[in-house]
Amino acid sequence: MQTPAKPVNQLFSKNFLNRLIWPLVAEQFLAMTIGACDTVMVSSVGEAGVSGVSLIDQLGQLVIQLFAAFATGGAVVASQYLGHKEQKKAQASAKQLLNLCVIAGVFFIAICLPLRRIILNGIFGALDPQVMDNALTYFVWILFSFPLLGIYNSCAALCRAMGNSKISLKVSLVMNLTNIAGNAILIYGVKIGVAGAGISTLLSRGIAAVVMLCILSQKKWPLFLEKIWKPQFDFTLMGRILKIAVPSGIENSVFHIGKTLVYSFMSTFGITVIAANAITNTVASFSNIPGNAIGLASVTIVGQCIGAGEKEQAKSYGRKMMLLSYGGMFVTAIVVFGLAPFVTKIFNLTPQAQNLAVLVIRACMVANIFFWPMSFTMPNILRGAGDAKYTMIISNISMWLFRVLGSFLISKWILRIYPGNTQFAFFGIWIGMFLDWIFRGIMFYVRFCGKKWLEKKVI
Q1: Which class for 64: exposed (0-12), middle (13-18), buried (19 or more C-beta within 10 A)?
Q2: Which candidate among 258, 348, 373, 431 keeps its CA 20 to 30 Å from the CA of 111?
Q3: Nearest 5 degrees, angle CA 193-CA 196-CA 201?
Q4: Residue (of 71, 298, 26, 292) closest to 172 by Cα position
Q5: What is the Cα Rg of the chain in Å?
Q6: Rounded distance, CA 302 to CA 381, Å?
Q7: Distance from C-alpha of 109 to C-alpha of 113, rounded to nearest angstrom
């Protein structure tokens, strides 16, 4: 069989790809590492404080997923305009992305601030009074930080769209170190508990937002933000961003809700299983860093190819991104597989929980090598072309059919065969998740091999 000729006049050099991807890898590793340190520092306020903070963080994840969806939509539209050599339109779409994120952040403050106690009671039921007090205190500060987080996320997405992920890496470093320093001063020094954790989060996000706005207000950038103090609304461009953002937001939110349902079901398996699962998720998140980073880069690469009308290059770069993702995931999975017994010792688990965590981590690493990139890097390639509705539909079907229903049925079936053996049933949860990955991967690969995803129009 004759191999296809390589596309001439390739849009992106190897050096460009390295400058885009490696800072994204470093940024994700930094955020996860410092996030773990942040958790340890907050734990010093006591069980009631930790519980209150963790409850709000669960709610916060839904908002973060929304901002991530806006960022994806904005990055796709801006990237396609840049690829199409329409810089004015690209700059205008950048400002509309910023508008959407700020509006969303202010909306959450207006709705949630006066109703925060009702919201917490409605979602979590009757909480311990101390836990409720801590949650309410932390919730106020986190609410005020949402518009600032939206600004940072939108600007970081614009940096990726320009192919300059070093900016977001440096600002992320400043933001996370500020948060750690703020926690140290306000929790350990001033001793104001969860209020200190909330204030340091607000300050760190505020500093990151201001720095990002100052950087992107400079005219030297392809996507500079002009007259940020003067709101200008272009509902056509907003609609194009939302065309990607709404399906992505639904997909992300449903995914988070599905995970929460699975955790709720799994919590009946006992503390050993809960601890092993928590450690497995923490360790696995580090192994996924290369795939996540390459997925973010793929939105920029494919978006600019589609904007330039280079559909064959979009497909060619899509293959290259997938090869890079598989290569990166293979390396991290092998390392984590080998170090699992040593890593789990850090968390001071019981021997039973540690042994269970090691088994599940290693099973997860094997599945990561074969299935994860196709399941989670590939959809970003499709989204880069504007094919967000398809990824949403497949992800929702797969989540509810395999990860939620499949996990429940497999675990129940195992418990019937081995009554009372919740550790065996715990493997049923992960089997359901692996089936979810396999189904997604197959459906996304079939879509990629076809031509429909290349025919989607965003601009």
Answers
A1: middle
A2: 258
A3: 135
A4: 26
A5: 22
A6: 6
A7: 5
Query: Token pair for residue 272?
Result: 């050993």
Tens digit of each residue's pLDDT (9 = 90 or more) over 78-116? 999 999 999 999 999 999 999 999 999 999 999 999 999
Instruction: For residue 207, give both structure tokens.
Output: 């500093």
pTM confidence score:
0.87
Output the DSSP codes for 120-154: HHHHH-S--HHHHHHHHHHHHHHHHHHHHHHHHHH
User: Nearest Cα to 167, choosing from 178, 152, 186?
Assistant: 152
Mention every residue, 6+ apart, whose C-beta is less than 8 A from residue 394: 379, 440, 443, 444, 447
| Structure-token match 């599940």, residue found | 360
Q: 216 φ, ψ to 5°?
A: -80, -5
Which ranges in 346-377 belong to alpha helices (H)? 351-372
- Contact between 45 and 190 under an 8 Å Cβ cutoff? The reply is no
Distance from C-alpha of 373 to C-alpha of 331, rounded to nearest angstrom: 13
Per-residue tokens: 436: 């979810």
Q: How far is CA 346 from the centre of its chain?
A: 25
| Residue 28, token pair as written in the block | 């994700």
CA 39/CA 278 separation, integer angstroms? 13
Distances (CA, A) of 264 to 124, 259, 274, 408: 12, 9, 10, 11
pLDDT digits (tens, 9 = 90+) for 365-381: 999 999 999 999 999 99
Q: Do 10 and 92 contact (CB within 8 A), yes or no?
A: no
At residue 239, the 3 state secondary structure works out as helix
**Chain-centre distance for alpha carbon 32:** 11
- The ranges of the chain with pLDDT < 50 are 1-7
Q: Length of the chain, please?
A: 459
Report helix, strand or coil for 9: coil
Report DSSP state, residue 187. Answer: I
Give pLDDT tens digits for 323-347. 999 999 999 999 999 999 998 887 7
362-387 burial, b at 16+ Cβ within 10 Å, e below that, comes to bbbbebbbbbbbbbbbbbbbbbbbbb
- Assigned token pair, 78: 């801006």
